[in-house]
TrEMBL record, chain A:
GO molecular function terms listed in the Swiss-Prot or TrEMBL record: transmembrane transporter activity
Keywords, ordered alphabetically: Amino-acid transport, Cell membrane, Membrane, Transmembrane, Transmembrane helix, Transport
Localization, UniProt: Cell membrane
One Pfam family from the record: BPD_transp_2
Highest taxon in the source lineage: Bacteria
Protein name: Branched-chain amino acid ABC transporter permease
Any Gene Ontology CC annotation: plasma membrane
Organism: Candidatus Dormiibacter inghamiae
GO term, biological process aspect, one: amino acid transport
Entries under InterPro entries matching the protein: ABC_transp_permease, BCAA_transport_permease
TrEMBL record, chain B:
The name this protein goes by in its record: Branched-chain amino acid ABC transporter ATP-binding protein/permease
Keywords (A to Z) from UniProt: ATP-binding, Cell membrane, Membrane, Nucleotide-binding, Transmembrane, Transmembrane helix, Transport
Highest taxon, organism lineage: Bacteria
One Gene Ontology MF term: ATP binding
Membrane topology: Multi-pass membrane protein
Subcellular location: Cell membrane
Length: 287, 606
């Protein structure tokens, strides 16, 4: 029984990791806390939903193109809005992304309506028995896909010149300009990739979670917890943090009523901020 | 009157200021209530009531978010607690909402302390993120407890006792009274020394602490007051909307609206939230009424407004252009002009011969003793058992190569960091675990390595902040002027601190410290960035203060300059004391020579 919660938590955490990695990337490179991260995930979910209902495509086929489209949208948003605010004005940046989140969420309400939709695939509600445990097929697939994407992200950041330039910008933006890196461009790319990852994760999550305009609100807080746990800005930290949150959320189901499950996550968030604002794992701190 | 004169920015306290500050708002409130009681249109009355309620909520947010500079995203916590406290007491024990207001305020204060004490330690966006979560937790808890939809019970038998008025204007009038209260409270803040105190916290908390301000307490007081006004608004709001749901009072949209009305109107401006509410609430109410509350149209509008304001008028409409009073003044004849805050006249300079700033200390007892002070970060020993004694009236230079641990040691002495072990005694008191502001109040003041002026305040106000804790009444003004004269900045008193040049900023920091009538002055690398002649002038000035009785501890890596002025040198390398004595002897010490030359040699190799 206990082990079942743990496995569920690890699988969920693996999916959250993708969301958190995007948020951490944006903070690590731009020092911007992106409040609208959940809404980009929501866009991904709707892409998967309409990809299936309109075009008849499986969400796993939609994932990559949807992620790329949201990446492009992210670049537009970063260049057109976020980079217009003086760098370092974190309060203003937070307010801007908060406004962005409200706009996206309520545009979605206006266009798609408030009714939740379910995207049902053959694997959506299937359980695989592994010994005494049951594994949600949709969670397993999503987790594996998430790990593959993160491997790709790792290779991109470590093997390509753009990736190296992004990391250089994260380390020291002014030093990066001295070697000819356009910080402005890197910021836009980072934001694009960050929200693109959220959008991609959204397509995966759509296979087991109701699709609705306000879904981002709950998830964005889960992402914040993960990212703060991992030490704001560290991608590996965020991944570990996300897995931790997944486990806490899942295990708490054994002890607290379903309605309060998110309250536990929120409480964890506050406690971590208050006690260890630099994160649990002592990874790269860049605050 | 002496107290009034001591407050900088209290524009010459004339009848015009009194009328403008107190009589006018009260009169306007009376006129407003009289006017709204004549409104027959229920829809219009409701919209007006909502405008007033949201102006009040915005005003409560403005206290913590605007004046104290803590960008809260959780004002809904107090609105919701106020609403639920009053309504549940009404249902459960039949308590009249009039007493419910008192209970709501009490609950809000308790909640503000529970939330504020831990959370206000966080800075900037961290505070914003943490504050966001509290109302969301409350939302989930109240939903879980089964309060998804609570109806305000109707009491048509005695509408006045139970606020069950059928005429909506009553609610608007009640909210207007609270709004008046909030306005007068904010006015009192702006007219007292709290104006400069809050401005300093908003700009730079560390620097504010160095003047002896208990920043944590100030923030907590403002946070609690803000919570009380929000909870009062919550009660009126609940009575007005009749059906209370967790989403309606604890939802993120409530916190966002509180913030947006203030932000649009103008942060840290009294009129800001009122202006913001007057613009936004009718629009969003119209959208909700025509497109449905679930259409998301009003929140979409808030989102668009938020983005636009942040990009176009980041400090709000009132801070973007000319001040409204200035516009009014343009059409008034000279004799009737109204006092405008920004053009504050400085308190007059007292005739010379005020008390000396530096209290004379008898004898040469040890006023600063560090015993085996130690600081360890993780596994790295930054300060390793440093022991030091400074006698009254001494001019000590703490020197050492870059990275030797000078600044860390300095922070231990001034309470900016806690030592891992050891004991620090200042002026006969063991202060090892004292917070920075208490050390400053004790009479031990510091300057910062990179000057940290409060750029939005005048030079006078910057120095005045230094005098707040160690004097009262008119004495503060006298001390401020004396400190300004001591460093020669008195001619710049009414200039904004941000327009000073670097050398003047150093002097400003010294003056800010001197205004607190310190017994010990600690200076962190005051010579950095100064030219030779500026450095000499500063040292000469310090020497004068030393002769007046001030004990000076100066930290710098420029051993040559310090040696020329200090009575004694205390050399640190790798967190250890390697020499201590008269400058001439210390300069010849082998270990000191090695430390300095060795570091250069290493630098050359790197």
């Amino acid at each position: 029984m206990g082990l079942q919660y743990l496995v569920d938590g690890l699988l969920l955490g693996g999916v959250y990791a993708l969301l958190a990695a995007g948020l951490a990337m944006i903070f690590g490179i731009m020092r911007v806390i992106n409040f609208a991260q959940g809404e980009f995930m929501m866009l991904g979910m709707y892409a998967a939903y309409f990809g299936y209902t309109v075009l008849g495509l499986d969400p796993y086929l939609v994932a990559l193109p949807a992620g790329l489209m949201i990446l492009a949208l992210g670049i537009v948003v970063a260049t057109g809005l976020i980079e217009r605010i003086p760098r370092g004005d974190q309060d203003a940046q937070l307010l801007l992304t908060l406004g962005l989140s409200l706009v996206l969420q309520n545009l979605a309400i206006a266009i798609f309506g408030v009714t939740p939709h379910a995207l049902l695939r053959p694997y959506s509600n299937t359980l695989i028995a592994v010994g005494p445990l049951f594994v949600h097929e949709s969670w397993l697939f999503a987790c594996v896909a998430s790990l593959v994407v993160m491997l790709g992200l790792y290779l991109f950041l470590s093997r390509t010149w753009t990736g190296r330039a992004l990391r250089a910008t994260a380390d020291d933006a002014s030093a990066a300009t001295y070697v000819g890196i356009s910080v402005r461009r890197m910021h836009s790319i980072a934001f694009g990739i960050g929200v693109g990852l959220a959008g991609l994760a959204g397509t995966l999550i759509a296979t087991f979670h109701a699709v609705l305009p306000t879904v981002g609100q709950d998830f964005v807080l889960i992402m914040f917890v993960a990212v703060v746990l991992g030490g704001l800005g560290s991608i590996p930290g965020a991944v570990l943090g996300a897995i931790f949150v997944g486990v806490v959320q899942s295990v708490s189901a054994a002890f607290v009523p379903l309605q309060l499950q998110n309250a536990v996550v929120f409480l964890l968030f506050v406690v971590v901020l208050l006690v260890r604002p630099r994160g649990l794992f002592g990874l790269r701190v860049r605050v | 009157m002496a107290e009034k004169a001591a407050v900088p920015g209290a524009a010459r306290v004339g009848w015009r200021a009194v009328v403008l500050d107190w009589a006018l708002p009260i009169a306007l409130c009376v006129v407003f209530i009289a006017a709204i009681s004549q409104v027959d249109d229920r829809y219009l009355a409701r919209v007006i009531a909502l405008v007033v309620v949201w102006a009040l909520i915005g005003m409560s947010w403005n206290l913590i978010g605007g004046y104290a500079g803590q960008p809260s995203l959780g004002q809904a916590a107090f609105v919701g607690l106020g609403a639920y406290t009053a309504i549940l007491l009404m249902i459960r024990v039949g308590l009249t909402p009039w007493l419910g207001l008192v209970a709501a305020a009490g609950v809000a204060i308790v909640a503000a302390l529970v939330i504020g004490i831990p959370t206000l330690r966080l800075k900037g966006v961290y505070f914003a993120l943490a504050s966001l979560v509290y109302p969301l937790i409350l939302l989930l808890v109240f939903t879980y407890l089964g309060y998804q939809e609570v109806l305000v019970p109707a009491h048509n038998d005695n509408p006045d006792l139970y606020m069950s008025w059928s005429d909506t204007w009553h609610y608007a009038a009640l909210a207007a009274l609270f709004l008046l209260l909030a306005w007068l409270f904010t006015t009192a803040l702006e007219r007292s020394r709290w104006r400069v105190v809050l401005q300093s916290i908003r700009e730079d908390e560390d620097a504010a602490r160095s003047t002896g301000i208990n920043t944590a307490l100030v923030k907590l007081v403002v946070f609690s007051t803000s919570a009380v006004f929000a909870s009062l608004a919550g009660v009126v709001y609940a009575m007005l909307i009749l059906v209370v749901t967790p989403e309606a009072v604890f939802g993120l949209s409530v916190s966002v609206q509180a913030l947006v009305v203030s932000l649009v109107g103008g942060m840290a401006r009294r009129l800001g939230p009122i202006l913001g509410a007057c613009i936004l609430i009718p629009i969003t109410n119209f959208l909700d009424a025509n497109l449905g509350a679930t259409s998301g149209a009003s929140l979409l509008a808030y989102g668009l407004v938020l983005i636009t304001v942040v990009l176009v008028v980041p400090r709000g409409l009132l801070n973007a252009g000319t001040r409204p009073l200035e516009v009014v003044n343009r059409v008034l004849p000279q004799s009737l002009r109204l006092p405008v805050n920004r053009r504050r006249s400085l308190p007059s300079r007292p005739p010379s011969g005020s008390r000396p700033l530096v209290p004379t200390h008898p004898g040469d007892e040890a006023v600063l003793i560090a015993a085996d002070a130690r600081k360890v970060y993780g596994g790295i020993v930054a300060i390793d058992r440093l022991s030091l004694e400074v006698r009254s009236g001494e001019f000590l230079g703490i020197v050492g190569p870059n990275g030797a641990g000078k600044s860390t040691f300095f922070d231990l002495l001034t309470g900016y960091q806690r030592s891992t072990a050891g004991r620090i005694t200042l002026l006969g008191r063991v202060v090892t675990h004292w917070p920075a502001y208490r050390i400053a109040r004790l009479g031990v003041r510091r300057s910062f390595q990179i000057a940290r002026p409060f750029g939005q305040l005048t030079v006078f106000d910057n120095v005045f902040l230094g005098s707040l804790q160690n004097a009262d009444g008119g004495q503060r003004t006298a001390d401020t002027w004396a400190a300004l004269e001591a460093v020669g900045l008195e001619v710049h008193a009414d200039v904004g601190a941000r327009s000073l040049v670097p050398a003047q900023l150093r002097l400003l920091e010294v003056a800010r410290a001197l205004a607190g009538r310190p017994a010990i002055l600690l200076l962190d690398e005051p010579l950095a960035g100064l030219t030779r002649s500026e450095a000499r002038d500063l040292m000469q000035l310090l020497r004068t203060q030393q002769h007046a009785g001030l004990t000076i501890v100066l930290v710098d890596h420029d051993i040559g300059t310090v040696a020329a002025w200090a009575d004694r040198l205390y050399v640190i390398d790798y967190g250890r004391n390697i020499a201590d004595g008269a400058p001439k002897e210390v300069m010849r010490d082998d270990r000191v020579v090695t430390a300095y030359l060795g570091s250069r040699w290493r630098a050359a190799r790197a």
